[in-house]
Amino acid sequence: MKVVIVGGGVMGTAIACELAQSKLDVTVLERSIPGAEASTAAAGMLAPQLEAQAPGPMLELSMRSRGLYPSWAKTLAAESGVDVAYLESGALQLGYSDAHAHELEATVAWQQAAGLRASLLTGAEVRALEPNAAPEIEAAAHFPDDHQVDPKKLMQALSLAAAKRGVTFKTGYVRGLLQTSGKVDGVDLDGEALKADLTIVAAGSWSSLIPGAAIDPKHLKPARGQMVELVLRLPPVKHILKAGLGYVVPRADGHVICGTTVELAGYDKRVTAEGLSTVLAQATRACPMLKDATVEHFWAGLRPWTEDALPMLGPGSQPGLLIASGHYRNGILLAPITAKLVGQLVRGERTSIDLAPFRPQRFG
Ligand code: GLY
């Protein structure tokens, strides 16, 4: 069976790795190099508890994916020779006022009731755990099971592992999907017909621009996230720190990834003065020591936003088509579970999670 995957980001490449294991003939199509867009723009937080607003299908999907990471990271490192820097850092959601502290208390309560590990810390307890965290912190929710990975290393490892498993990578521009008698049977790649028994669209924010994929740009749009990488001689904190949209992700080597903004600004990847100052203000508020850090790099990525913030995962509008896109703020986190679920769909197995909430056609 021949499978063509449109998009060589973390989703497309992870799916390719999974399908190649089932001895399928898999080709990944990418305009640029694997992971050139949102996948390597990400901070790499594996933090469903830090992101979750309430229990529900997204939390379940995210928790299942987080659970797959330790063994996935090991397998990828063993196959590729690249350590993906999976780091069990834990995470703290910070509150700077009494009102924030009450919100955090409620978050901790519903997460504990859902059976997750979470606790509420006082400001003094936060500073005992992280002496370089801001003195103005009133309280924090502690999520000891939310961790991180380095997305650039992950993409290297994934693409090497995929190539070793026999996946073909092709560079080119997909002009549209091929259709015969109401069925998708491949893609038009720069004018060449590339026939396939199954076509998988995993092109992130660009998925809604592919003619024939039937993804309405109203329902899937790019959401820009501006990011800054700082560096200090030693990591200033051990935990991921987050407050509102602002976060600080400390790598083991003193590099610190800071985010972010969420802007529906079209396909515009500029870093703006306002975006940069917002990201730096959030980061230095959480960890004032970062004021003296060196700015190493700044960039922006385009996350695939969906109207209900859930991924589009499952059969497309016609036979022969699967969609795995719209992972919005959680692409790195959701890659292993997405690959696993797509593998189950392709092999005709019952999926280990109900995909109904994620139906690509749910928007009508
Ligand atoms: N999950 C982090 C972000 O989207 O910026």
Descriptive account of the structure:
The protein has helices spanning 10-21, 38-41, 48-51, 57-80, 98-113, 123-129, 151-164, 273-286, 331-346; strands at 2-6, 25-30, 45-46, 91-95, 119-122, 139-143, 147-148, 168-171, 174-180, 183-189, 192-195, 198-201, 220-231, 240-243, 246-250, 255-259, 294-306, 312-315, 321-325. The two termini are 31 Å apart. The chain has an 8-stranded mixed β-sheet. The protein has a 6-stranded mixed β-sheet with strand order 8-2-1-12-19-18, with helices on one face. Strands 9-10-11 form a 3-stranded antiparallel β-sheet, with no helix packed on it. It has 2 domains: 2-81 and 151-219 and 308-363, FAD/NAD(P)-binding domain (3-Layer(bba) Sandwich), CATH 3.50.50.60; 91-147 and 221-306, D-Amino Acid Oxidase, subunit A, domain 2 (D-Amino Acid Oxidase, Chain A, domain 2, 2-Layer Sandwich), CATH 3.30.9.10. The longest helix has 24 residues, at 57-80. The chain is of the alpha/beta class and 364 residues long. Helix content is 30%, strand content 28%. Glycine (GLY) is lined by residues 43, 45, 225, 259-260, 303, 329.
